[in-house]
């Protein structure tokens, strides 16, 4: 039963860690979008403004998504750690003293 009681905070910590990695995914999307845009510019026929705008827009949206994910993940991570800490502290206080 002790392992089951830790499932909630552990899930919060794992989920928070994954969401806190959002800026890394945002940067990856930015690099991919800008690489596509620069690739279109380098083509012999050039690139239309609409094509470039689409690629740059994609790169900015991934950056935005990564920045939104970070505070959510950080909140989950801290909340899970506090919850886990409180459970272990209350479990210690319930033990009979010697």
Strand and helix map with partners:
Layout: H1 2-5, H2 7-20, H3 22-42, H4 49-94
Helix pairs in contact: 2-4, 3-4
Explain what the structure shows.
The structure is a single chain. With 98 residues, this protein is mainly alpha-helical. It has a domain at 21-85. Helices cover 87% and strands 0% of the residues. It has four helices and no strands. Helix 2 (7-20) packs antiparallel against helix 4 and helix 3 packs antiparallel against helix 4. 13% of the residues are buried.
Order of helices and strands: HHHH
Distance between the termini: 24 Å
List low-pLDDT spans.
Answer: none
Form type: rod-shaped
- Bin the strand percentage: under 5%
What is the CA-based Rg, rounded? 22 Å
Number of helices: 4
- Averaged pLDDT, please? 85
Helix content: over 70%
* Helix vs. strand class: mainly alpha
In total, how many beta strands?
Answer: 0
Q: How would a textbook summarize the main sheet?
A: none
Assembly type of the chains comes to single chain
Brief sketch in words of this structure:
This protein has 98 residues and is an all-alpha fold.
Provide the descriptors you would attach to this structure in a database record.
rod-shaped, single chain, 0% strand, 98 residues, 4 helices
């Amino acid at each position: 039963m002790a392992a089951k009681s830790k499932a909630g905070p552990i899930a919060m910590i794992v989920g928070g860690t994954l969401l806190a990695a959002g800026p890394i995914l945002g940067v990856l999307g930015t690099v991919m979008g800008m690489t596509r845009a620069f690739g279109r510019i380098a083509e012999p026929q050039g690139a239309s403004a609409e094509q470039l705008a689409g690629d740059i827009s994609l790169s900015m949206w991934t950056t935005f998504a990564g920045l939104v994910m970070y505070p959510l993940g950080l909140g989950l991570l801290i909340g899970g750690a506090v919850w886990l800490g409180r459970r272990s502290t209350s479990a210690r206080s319930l033990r009979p003293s010697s």
